[in-house]
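[DERIVE STRUCTURE TOKENS]
===
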Amino acid sequence: MENANCALTADVIAALRYWPGVIWGGQKSPPDPVDMTVLLPFFNEVLQDLPWWNRDWKVDRVRPGDPTETGDHFCDPAVRFTEVSIPGTVTSGNGEGLPFVAKVGFTGDQLIRFQAKIGDVVIGPAVAPAGRSEPHSFGRMLTGLMDRRGIQVRDMARAAGLSMSTVHMLRRGHNPNLQQVRLIAGILDMSEADVRVIAGLDDDSTQ
């Protein structure tokens, strides 16, 4: 889920960057303890912003996280990207508890990404307006792959034998079918099998 332009406080950043179980350059070993409880109101505030979030559920406990991306610690902190997974628990009003993991990505003091997993369910805000289905993740990946290769929509449409409107629909998140995947794979200079995986079409798919 995307949460752009949200500023993080110094206390929250310190808690997100507190990794006593990880050794990396620039960090004291063991690091000085920090107040992890500042993450509880931070996580609950982000979750409360989701219109469908059950207000009875609260993050009530967190533990030090594990970094998945620490960035270059010698570069300007204002542009350094960090991503970390913070485990914990959530409880409901009736005392029911479930395991919780938050994946937080940030640059400087700006929150870039936030994804929560409660039990075995990954949650995030809706991208599409209410009453409309969510876009397929293939759209964002297709857009990125085309952009990295400098492939314009009209060029993809011409080379793959698709209409420009179809390519635009796929880039906006329309579910791709197997034939479209086959046509697009060659233009991206990728194997059909790889593009099928990106599109979420398994080997038995007949779409």
Observations:
- The chain is about 30% helix and 25% strand.
